[in-house]
Amino acid sequence: MADIHIVREHGLGLHRARQLARRWAEVAETKLEAQCVYQHGETHDVVRFRRPGASGELRVMEGRFELEAKLGLLLGVLKPTIERAIASNLDELLAQEDPLQAFEHRLERHHAKHAAKHPKPHADAHRAPKPGAPQAGKKTR
Predict the structure, then answer these.
(1) Is 27 exposed, middle or buried (0-12, 13-18, 19+ CB in 10 A)?
(2) How far is Cα 113 from Cα 107, in angstroms, rounded to an integer?
(3) DSSP code per residue over 79-129
(4) Which of the 8 DSSP states describes residue 12?
């Protein structure tokens, strides 16, 4: 198994870091078909994730994110590429004034770019719903 360990300092504070981590978990469940469990703590949170070929956790602290991931045999071959992409994406987001808004903007760009390449049902399956938006199949009151 290949291991990935990424630590990034941030100035978001715990509240905004939690918002970003929760949104990442929602998107990981939708786009990466990962099972995510978000554990809220008093001083930090932990997002545990698992999907075929990868598992790990993201620790969310007031001034730091720590990502630990284990890649299976097949994804392990791509470890340098995966690690570089995660680090680059995180660095780009944390460089923004509002990382959560930048994350949402990137999701929209990604969806628009790939919508033309995939039939509509397939493209919609990869679109993570915005927080608070009604989800298909779920009744709202």
Answers:
(1) buried
(2) 10
(3) HHHHHHHHHHHHHHHHTSSSHHHHHHHHHHHHHHHHHTTS-HHHHHHTPPP
(4) S
CB atoms near residue 54 (< 10 Å): 20
* Phi, psi (degrees; rounded to nearest 5) at 31: -85, -35
Pairing state between β 2-9 and 64-71: antiparallel
The two three-digit tokens of residue 117, written as one number = 């390449």
CATH topology of domain 2-125: Alpha-D-Glucose-1,6-Bisphosphate; Chain A, domain 4 (3.30.530)
Q: How distant is the alpha carbon of residue 105 from its chain centre?
A: 14
Largest CA distance in the chain: 47
- The conformation of residue 14, written as its DSSP 8-state character, comes to H
Instruction: State the pLDDT at residue 138.
Output: 45
Question: Helix 99-115 vs helix 13-31: angle between axes, to the nearest 10 degrees?
Answer: 20
Q: The pTM is what?
A: 0.77
Tens-place pLDDT, residues 94-130: 999 999 899 999 888 888 887 777 666 655 555 566 6
